[in-house]
Amino acid sequence: MRFRRFVFLAACLAVCSSGLVRAQEAPRPIATISISPLDRLMQDTTYLLRAANVPEIGGIFMMMGNQYTQGIDRSKPLGVSVTLNGQIPSATVFMPMADREQFFGALAGMGIEPDDLGDGLFEIDANGQTIYAKQSGSWMFVAQSEEALTNLPADPSVGLGNLPQQYNLAMRIDVQALPAEMKAWAIDQMRTGMQRGMAEQRGLSADEKALAEELSEANMQQLESLLTDTEQVTIGWNVDSAKQRVTIDSQAQFVAGTKLANQVAELKNLTSYFTKLAYPAAAANFRFTSKIAEEDKQLQILNLRNTMAQLEAQMRAPEEVKALTKEVLQGLGTILEKTIQEGAFDGAGSVMLADDTLRVIVGGRVADGRALETELKKIAAGLAGETGAPTFEFGYATHQGMTLHRITADVKIADRAAQKFFGNKLNINIATAEKAFIISVDPAGDGALKSAIDRVKSGGEAPVSLGDATLDATQILRFAQAISPNPLLDNALQTIQQYAGKDKIEITGKAIERGGAYSISIDEGILRAAGAAAKSGGGNGGF
Q1: What is the Cα–Cα distance from 305 to 312, expressed in whole angstroms?
Q2: Which stretches of 445-522 are DSSP H helices?
Q3: How many CA atoms, within 13 angstroms, populate the side-chain half-sphere of residue 527?
Q4: C-alpha distances in angstroms, 312 versus 180, 283, 308, 331, 333?
């Protein structure tokens, strides 16, 4: 799906809101920023700085935070509401007040003296810029104009929803609050940019130019759907000292009944046949599953063709090698296009580093697994008789209904670290079936491949989310240190080994109500290892 474009969409909206003259006032905030209650924020930030091996900065942060937030109610959230005021965005900051005079006293310590205009309104000279503050009930509102401080809500934190409970810092963009002319302006700007980029491309053949134009138009239609169908985009950052991790989330929800909302509804009941290829104990594993909507297939195919064309254009090799490579790429492209037409992607893989040896398993669904064997045979035929060419063995055995193939090549690398990494021989084992493939890279032979086939067959079809991935930093650091020792790696490894079970990066993707969400979490052990490596490298500030 399109969730990878969340950040791009948010950036477009920010540009729109700052650069367009519009005719009428926005009925509601186009963006809301949430800041968790100060007690929690300062506790979590101090923990983060300590975990990153810079506790001294944490101490300074706590001291300054306590000094300059006097008078603010530290048990309630803070926020910023952004609306459109005529031609420009207008931001209103709101803070919960426990003691206004104490708060103003803290400002005085920074050389800021508010002028009392009466009726709870104050004028403030902030480094040459005039801003206004007004207390209403137990809240202090700050804005760039007096007009922005009329009709204030009794409790502005209601507009934050559950963001303060979920995140230390979060931003929600209400795409539907943007007027139609703003979206039209954004689309026109993007279209102009794409057309300019097309005009700057030189040396394209007629076919290449036609492909580029078709792809450009398809991408524009997709971006237009994102702007018109998206209801809101949310990005949040959270430090969880209790769970010892940092999390970054992004999610989008689409307007009910729209094309995108209907598409993501199809992603709620996904299943996969390859979950067992993501080994839990691996140094790295990943899994992905998705359905391709009928109306998106052509764009996927166009993107694939464009990628293949770029690969062909960038080839620098003798003509006979280029001809073979082009033929193979075209064959693989045909297989991938058929897979797209069937409307589903499903696959998984793992990287194992036990015993300081690299082993890789990867597999997935494909429209024509037998055609992969045909492409491999093309490569073998093209390399036949070449000095140092790999050895190919096709169909040397079967296992659980899959046909096994093997490629063996001598590895001749002068670098000792690389020699240790790859060994003297590269063994690639491939299993193909009508609708599947599994590949293993293992110096020990095809045992890992057969084991992977057994795992897939025994695992069967299982319900899954959109995708997930995990990196085990301890294993990766240990392997890197074994291959190419250095003091920075050693310091980081010694540190992270003290945090067993808290040494991973995890990425998850899932369908939510009328939308999708991705989350990245980083364990404390990684923060501490990064800080230790930075300090051992001569830096004084840690991570």
Answers
A1: 11
A2: 447-459, 473-483, 487-496
A3: 22
A4: 42, 33, 6, 13, 12
Which helix (H) or strand (E) segment is 327 a member of?
Answer: helix 319-342
Please calculate the CA angle 289-294-299 and round it to the nearest 5 degrees: 85
Neighbours of 180 (CB within 10 A): 9
- What value, to the nearest 5°, has the Cα angle with vertex 148 and ends 89 and 230? 40
Contact in structure between 505 and 523 (CB atoms under 8 Å): yes
Q: Are 208 and 309 in contact (CB under 8 A)?
A: yes
State the virtual CA torsion across 140, 144, 150, 152 in degrees, nearest 10.
-40
For residue 91, give the H/E element and its range: strand 88-96
Q: Show the tokens assigned to 72.
A: 């603010």
pLDDT tens digits for range 234-245: 999 999 888 899
Kindly calculate the radius of gyration of the chain based on its CA atoms and give it in whole angstroms.
Answer: 29
- Average of per-residue pLDDT values in the chain: 86
pTM, to two decimals: 0.84
CA distance 88 to 244: 41
Question: Rounded to an integer, what is the distance from CA 359 to the centroid of its chain?
Answer: 26
Cα–chain center distance at 154: 37
Query: Can you tell me which residue has the tokens 């300090």?
Result: 535
H/E stretch holding 53 reads none
pLDDT value of position 91: 92
Q: Quickly state the pLDDT bin for 134 (edges 50, 70, 90).
A: very high
Q: How does pLDDT run across 293-330, given as a tens digit for each residue?
A: 888 888 888 888 888 888 877 877 777 777 888 888 88
Residue 156, token pair as written in the block: 């502005």
Report d(CA 426, CA 429) in Å as an integer. 10
